[in-house]
Amino acid sequence: METITEKTKEHSYDSRRPSIRARQLVINRGTSVTPQSSSPGFSVYDSKRRASGLPWLSVASSDIDAAAFRRMNSTGISAVTDSSEKEKKDLQGLNERLSNYIERVRFYEAQNRKLADELEKLKAKWGKETTQIKAMFQAELDEARRLLEAECKLKSHFELRMVSSEETSEELRER
To answer: What is the extent of the structural domain holding 138?
Structure first.
């Protein structure tokens, strides 16, 4: 029995639990909260980290002189400010490009509407003029067709007379 309990103790959940714990970091802006620092600015305070014995992790205002701390902060702040200025300029450029695009689209839409109206006017005008022109020339075409039919009849009549005349002339020659 003892061997079973010893094995269960070895493989228990508590024995496999990681020993690394999350650390808390408190950043206060403005005047310092810790009594050791009297300079305004950023103050980083973490009692658990100080108790851990890792000097490179402790960043309290008493460990770093105020001038070095301000330089670190101003470097970080200038980097953030520079990147935000760059992003701002990029966004302004993109906004300008978008407004130019929207302006072009609106111009083309207005031009398209203008051309569509002109096309409708031309279609309406073309339809009216064609019916008037068609009516005007239709009478002339009908008259020309009538005259052509009459001339064709007259031509065929004369061709028949010519053929009959030729026949009679040949008969007379033979006699």
So the answer is: 65-158
